[in-house]
Amino acid sequence: MTQLDGAVAALVSAAGVYGVLAVLWVARSRSDRAAAASLGRLDIDPYHAVATAGQPYDADEHAAAVLLLAGRLRIGADGQLSVADGGSHGAGSSADAVVDHPVAAALLDAVRRNGPVTLRRLRDDPGLREARGTFLREQDARVPRWSGRRNDGIGTTACATALALSSFFPVQRVFLGDEKPAGVGDLLFGLFLVVITGLMLAVPLVWLAMRYWPDRRDPFRAHCAGLPHPEPAALDEERRGRLRESRVHAEPRAREDTTWVDSGGAF
After folding, report:
1. 60 vs 90, residue with greater confidence
2. How far is CA 76 from CA 105, 106, 111, 246, in A?
3. What is the pTM of this model?
4. What is the dihedral of CA 172, 173, 175, 178, to 10 degrees?
5. Distances (CA, A) of 14 to 9, 123, 166
6. More confident residue, 96 or 156
């Protein structure tokens, strides 16, 4: 088989792989749409829905709205959250009921520990981040079909095929041609050419695969984005604006005072 025959065979094989992947993508998309018809019967926790539709830390904003409505938190004009009335209420009160949720409880504890603080700063709080992550993993486990919704094995295979194709041509040229490396020096130089030429081909080919291969549709995320969230909507416009400010701006960290010591004329 000549090098031209090998190149043609590699291109035909890659085209066949992409054809199979396209069929699999269409079949999976239809299956996802069919399964999405049952999403309306799922009982989805609102914190899970908010985090799925956006970012995991969006659950913190939802918790803050719930705690503000319950009177457990207050928010200043600068967007800083603080515990209301020392965070103490009578046992069994309705305000205590909202803290039964792990994310709300973790947020209230984080505000209590950090003092007046913005939601943006609380993203980095270890206790809140751990509680939120544990809760979201547990909720994902309740919907196993959708828990791996962002893992697109077909798209990964499409990119891997482009990478394999870009590696084939330099390997064929250096090691499968008529003039094969004769010694260690030729072998090392051949490997160097394979790496350099492979990278030159891989960059555009893999970019094209990543750019134009369709992403997996996410009906679960779209469903969560469309669910109503009455607690944040129940806040007055002023507190909603303050909460938005708290979400995007972190208060400046305290700067340590710098003490200059007399050098005794050294300078």
Report:
1. 60
2. 20, 20, 13, 9
3. 0.69
4. 110
5. 9, 44, 11
6. 156
